C-alpha cells in the first residue's frame, strides 16, 4: 500500500490550483502529492465556440501571477474593462471602470479548458502524480491520516485528504458532513452569444423582475451569457429554437451590443446556495464547491475557492508539522472565515435583492444603483468585492 503526504480528490481547476500552490514548498519538504480525478485532462487545447468559461477576478490574477502561470492563462483571456449594472425598466444604472480603480482590468474571462491546460502543464511530475481516470469510493479515517479505496480496488494512505470533488460530493455525504442548503428556485441558463457590435471589454449585469442576467466579454467578440430564470421558464428557454431564443433575449437585454446574432449550445444548472457545516477535520479539508456553491450571477464562486486554496497552501507550508494536523487546518479555517462570510453574503444578498419583483424592494434597489453611481465610497466597496479584494488590506 502506497502512502503520500496529500491526496487531492478532484483534479479540476480548484484541485489543480491547490497542487500548484503547494508544489515548490512540497518539493523542498519531500512531500508527495497525488491528484485523483475521474476525467483525464486533455493533452491539447481545442478552441470551441461553446466552451464554458470562468470570470477570474483581479484578485485571482494576483494569485496566479504569484504562482507563475498567469502569463500563459491571459494569452486566451478577455479583460473586463468596465461593468455596466442596470435594472430593467428603471432609470438607475451604475458603471464600474478599471481605470477608476487603478487596475488594468476588473477581471478576466477565460475558457475553462484553457485554464486547465495552463495549470496541468505547470505541475511537476516529480512532486505531483495523477491517478486518472480514477475515483475514490470510500474514505476511512486513520489515527494519522486517511485510507482511500479507489474504484479499481486499490488503496492509498495519506497524511491529508483534500475533498475537492464538487458540489454534489458523495464522499462528503459518506463522511457525515452536513450541508446547509438554500434553494433559489431558479436555474442558470449558460450559453455563448455573438452580437453585431463589439463588446469592447464591457461586462453587463442586468436585473429584471424575472431574474438577473450577465453577459461577460469573451475573445472573438463573443459573450458568455448567464441567464437566471425560474425553473420551468428556464426549461422553456432552453428548448426554444435559436431565432426565438435570440428574440426573447434581445427583448430583455436591449440593444447595447446591437443585434444578437448567434447563440451556441444552452446548458441549465439548478441553483442552490450550499455550505458545508464542516470544512476541516483532523487530516481532512473540504474545498471548492464541496465546501460552498454560490449563485453564479455575482461571479464569486471560483474566485473564493481559489483564495481558499491559496490560504490552505500558505497555512500548510508555514507549519513545521506534517500536513493534516488539526491546529494547522483550524488556522487556515480561521483565516478564511471572514472572506467566506463576506463573499457568500455579498453573493446571496445581490441575488435576493435583484431577483425580487416586490414593488418596495424594486424601488429600493433602483435607489441603491443610483446611490452606487453617485457615492464614491459605496462604489469602491462594490468594485473591491467584485474584484475579489474585499478582505485585502493592501489593495
Structural class: alpha+beta
Instruction: Give me the CATH architecture of the largest domain, please.
Output: 3-Layer(bba) Sandwich
In round numbers, the mean pLDDT is 86
| Main β sheet profile | 9 strands, mixed
Helix percent reads 25-40%
Give the CATH superfamily of the largest domain.
Answer: FAD/NAD(P)-binding domain
Under CATH, the topology of the largest domain can be stated as FAD/NAD(P)-binding domain
Poorly predicted residue ranges: 358-376
The number of E-state strands comes to: 20
Characterise this structure.
This is 2-octaprenyl-6-methoxyphenyl hydroxylase. Its cofactor is FAD. The protein is an alpha+beta fold and about 400 residues long. The chain folds into two domains: about 1-50 and about 115-175 and about 275-350, FAD/NAD(P)-binding domain; about 65-110 and about 180-270, D-Amino Acid Oxidase, Chain A, domain 2 (2-Layer Sandwich), CATH 3.30.9. It contains twelve helices and 20 strands. The strands form three sheets. Strands 5, 6, 12, 13, 14, 15, 16, 17 and 20 form a nine-stranded mixed sheet that branches. A hairpin with a 3-residue loop joins β14 and β15. α9 runs antiparallel to α10 (about 325-355). The longest helix is centred in the last third of the chain and has 29 residues, at about 325-355.
